[in-house]
Structures are given as structure tokens and as C-alpha cells.
Amino acid sequence: MNMKTTNFSRIAVTAIALLFDLFAVMPVNAVTNAVSSGFDNIYIVTDVPTSGEVMNSGSVFYTSSAGDFYLNVDDLTAQLALGNVQVLTMVGDIYVQTGVEWTSPTSLTLNSGKNISVDGVAVIGNYIILNAARNVTVDSGATVKGSIIDLNALQNVEITSGAELYSDTYDMLITAGRNITLDQARLETADGLISLTATSGKYLKL
Prior knowledge:
23 strands; disordered N terminus
């Protein structure tokens, strides 16, 4: 698809008094087409088998024991082919350490009670939603591309130098309770609006 770089005159930068509670409607445990870890961190990887049990005819990956949860990307993309997927930890971090690509018209939602980090890899699909109670970081070399991109953090969103975000159909929404830092990152949208919302209004580095 022929992409165009959005002119910053089209970027909406707003400040609001309160950030909505990202976790108000989040389930505590695993739901259909979900990955749930009630205790520690979740790692999306390529070289480690998925942790825990497979429930409900393969639609749910679940662990009820303490410890880190490893989600093999092959299992994740298989679930994305079937329907929307949530990856959820209420008290840990989520680390995307390998590329995730899918073509089905489904959504991938990462919900973290702490931080989410996309570690220099490609996440390419349809709807991509990252919700963190602390920080969302898209590291250098990472590519996030989808029909809709929605990044939300109760503290900070940081997109580092060399990272690229593409919204090829609709809007790109980035919301932080404190600061949004765009350190020479590349943001593009084909047709939609890039919306940056820093609720405390401390700084936006474009």
C-alpha cells in the first residue's frame, strides 16, 4: 500500500484532566482467545514453548501458578486466525521479543498491570492495542503496523529513535497519563489522523 507521511499540522495534541481506567473492563483471568498470567511477566517469544495449560479446545492459554509466562508466537498467531486475542497480566510486564504477523481481520490486545515493551521487532496485523498501567515503550528498530494502532499508558509512552508506526486504514491513537516521547520516531498514516494525548501536558518531543 502506498503510504504517506502525515503532516504534523494534522496531528491532534490535546490535554485532558483524567485518563480513563484502562483496566475497568478487563477480566481478571483468561477469557476466550486469551493468554492470561495472574502473577508475573509475559514474554512473546519464538524459541520457547508456550507455558501453562491449553483450555477450551485450544482457545485459551492459561497458567494459575506463579512465575513468568512464555507465549510462543506460533500459538499466538494461530489464535489470531480464529478471533480476537487478549494477552493479560495484572501485575507483570509484557515483552514482545519476536515478530508477530497475521492477516485475519482480528485484534491483538496487550493488557499489562505494569509495562509493555516492543523490543525492536515487527508487529504487523489488523487492530493493535497496547494498554499499560505504567509505561509503553516501542524500542529502536521496532515496526508496528495495522489498520488501527492504539497505545495507552497511565504513565508514559516512549517511541524511540528508529522505531516506525504505520496505520494503513484508520487512526493512530497514542495516550499517556504523563508524557509522550517521540525521539525521532517515524509515524505514518494512510488516511486517518494521528492523535497524541498527554494528559499531564509535561512534554511532547516530536
